[in-house]
Design the sequence.
């Protein structure tokens, strides 16, 4: 059986594991994401000697997927870091790279909440907001890759919070990410209770449902998976679902949009690592077909 | 050389032609879109005897693409009309069907402003607003098909027009379609001049640029083609382009987004009919590969 290395690089921590599926995944190793040289050498050290056939990396972005690099990022020291080169040079196996959310979408499609579907979106609502879309089973790329957290949304009439996105202010991420909740209310989402929690969840549902609506109208996905820390606020997913039905106003308003359309991840916290396994397998397939 | 029939069904008129490419397209025949029986029999009558190898139909929606039918539509008498069945029964050739905007996207990709691109969007801004996306060269479908005109947009701070969409009120189509311009200003867009025109174009650019922004963030297209009658208002495309750069706020803010990203159709008014030719060819290919 093939054995793959999978790496999920986040802005604050980097996870690694080996295996061929979520069922036989090794213990997950976590290191803080510090500077590129240190973090990448820890990734290489972990995978060296594991005899993997390929490695998949699902990483924070923006990414230059053609060049295998991080793009220009506010994360200090990481702009234009070559992610693929050092790992391939050290371990000499095929490497697959995609965004963290495209990775999670691939994992959920293979083993999670979107099995059997060709067209769906994985959305994460947490420290940032992002989304990865699969169309005909393939992650969507074009001129770069999607950055779904930065869509514009209508402001809730009772929300005068200016927004926390360093670029757009009040884009979706600026109004509905975990830091926006904390900055607006003075407390982290998971520490809210009573009417503070109710208010925060209603606002959050208002914004996330607009994203779901725009996904329906732009991509016509068969399902939207909503993960990330904020998505676990009590009542949030039901709230988004109710709001989405209102947003669609019956058009298309299919029965599928009312129930079972917005779902939590099937793989809990390992969607991204599972996706790394898929990226690794795809890298092998690509190397074979081109070799 | 193959010879195809192509049909573009709009809410008010239906166009037909035969050929193999825009270069050898026959004269275009136009009939009013009245009731289904009359309109479809006129289509059949036009194509009968033309010895076509296949027929492509790009139609107004919503469509049930699996069933080859119109969905539930406010256009009287057309809900759940079988489009493909009667034409195939009468003419006994493969039939390809897709939305008008997916058709136009296919035509523009093959012969127009998106030649050589796999990932792009064709947007029409006219009586309605719609968009067809190609990803990896294929029209995007999933749970139904996209209905891009119905995304939510932020309202311009000086615009208090309630919106004309019968379902959503002030969705993009409700605020920025041709009828919205006319209803808001009291005159059709093409009849405006002076400051009335300037104001209308600025509002229109504000809304259409939000659509372009959300397309960038959700689909990362390589190009966005903007067609339809309203798109020809003087200064509109430049206005949308300027606003889009502001909307993206440098993220991703690639050089490609600033110039040559938003373009008019390359096929002027025949994008949809050209797309019908592509749909016809695809229907032949599909019949061959399954036969």
Sequence:
């Amino acid at each position: 059986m093939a054995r793959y290395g999978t790496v999920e690089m986040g802005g604050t921590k980097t996870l690694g594991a080996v295996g061929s599926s979520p069922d036989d995944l090794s213990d997950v190793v976590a290191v803080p994401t510090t500077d590129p040289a240190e973090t990448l050498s820890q990734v290489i050290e972990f995978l060296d000697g594991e005899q993997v056939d390929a490695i998949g990396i699902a990483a924070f972005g923006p990414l230059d997927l053609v060049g295998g690099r991080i793009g220009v990022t506010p994360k200090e020291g990481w702009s234009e870091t070559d992610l693929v080169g050092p790992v391939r040079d050290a371990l000499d196996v095929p490497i697959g790279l995609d965004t963290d959310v495209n990775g999670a979408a691939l994992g959920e499609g293979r083993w999670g909440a979107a099995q059997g579907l060709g067209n769906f979106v994985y959305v994460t609502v947490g420290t940032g907001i992002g989304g990865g879309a699969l169309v005909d089973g393939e992650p969507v790329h074009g001129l770069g890759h999607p950055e779904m957290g930065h869509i514009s949304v209508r402001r809730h009439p009772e929300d005068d919070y200016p927004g926390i996105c360093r670029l757009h202010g009040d884009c979706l991420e600026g109004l509905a990410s975990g830091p926006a909740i904390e900055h607006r209310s003075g407390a982290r989402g998971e520490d809210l209770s009573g009417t503070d929690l109710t208010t925060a969840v209603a606002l959050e549902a208002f914004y996330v449902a607009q994203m779901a609506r725009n996904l329906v109208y732009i991509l016509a996905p068969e399902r939207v998976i909503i993960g990330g820390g904020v998505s676990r606020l009590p009542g949030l997913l039901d709230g988004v679902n109710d709001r989405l039905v209102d947003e669609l106003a019956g058009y298309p308003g299919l029965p599928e949009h009312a129930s079972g359309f917005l779902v939590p991840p099937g793989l809990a916290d390992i969607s991204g690592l599972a996706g790394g396994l898929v990226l690794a397998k795809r890298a092998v397939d690509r190397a074979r077909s081109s070799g």
Notes: DSSP finds nine helices and twelve strands in chain B. Chain B touches chain A through 49 residues (CB under 8 Å). Chain B has a mean pLDDT of 97.
